[in-house]
Amino acid sequence: MIQNFTFYKYQGAGNDFVLIDNRTNIFNPTNCDLISKICHRKFGIGADGFMLLQNAEGYDFEMLYFNADGQPGSMCGNGGRCIVAFAKYLEIIKTETHFIAVDGPHFAKIDEPNNWVSLQMIDVDSVTRDGDAYIINTGSPHYVNIVDDVENLNVFELGKALRNQPNYVNEGINVNFVAQKLNYIFLRTYERGVENETLACGTGATAAAIAIAVKNNFIGANSMPVKVMGGDLNIQFYYDGKVITKVFLEGPAECVFQGIYPNNNIF
Hints:
This protein is α+β, with helices and mostly antiparallel strands. The protein is 17% helix and 43% strand. The protein folds into 2 domains: 4-120 and 254-262, Diaminopimelate Epimerase, Chain A, domain 1, CATH 3.10.310.10; 127-250, Diaminopimelate Epimerase, Chain A, domain 1, CATH 3.10.310.10. The protein has 4 helices and 17 strands. The N and C termini lie close together (8 Å).
């Protein structure tokens, strides 16, 4: 029986995650109660999400992601960028990688001087509407509301109410409020699974940039800076008027600290 394990804490634009190298199966991924405890900000390490880096045939590694509530999650963009940086630290990769996540294969590359990670996201072939909002799946489902004054919104109350509407409450949806500025967009996100506003959301930033492009008919190649509460991201993509392809989520990813988590009941 393993009594403890090494963990790593990473953050990408304020989105923080606990990561474990699970290539030797030291951690049981079905232990949702332990994952929830680890992510708790008062009784655990504290994080927006939890990830296991695992072996995967035909890929450099597998990304197994869990929400802060301990439940398996959909794709996490900033988590994906952080696990790429983690894989480089573990010397699994150098500056480029192909890995597998819950929404399929991903390519990523690292700009070493500034730890800037560029992660290719899935193509988006469907953008629907719910009233004035845009509904977009970028690996995770997103509700994008374009507003004028995002700085002064009560994102927790508004996001919670929209996330728990009857048509979203069962599966959940991430709720984004985005304002279009002169040279960038400013985004705030309420995330399901965390059930609170987070400092950043990678799939949300991707969805927000796409919503702005669709609204303004930005046909062609786009490179859209995104400011979030925890820093700066950038979204690159190509929009042909119907389908969004060549989608890349870009931003910083860094290790905050590592430690030993004591536990007598991992399995």
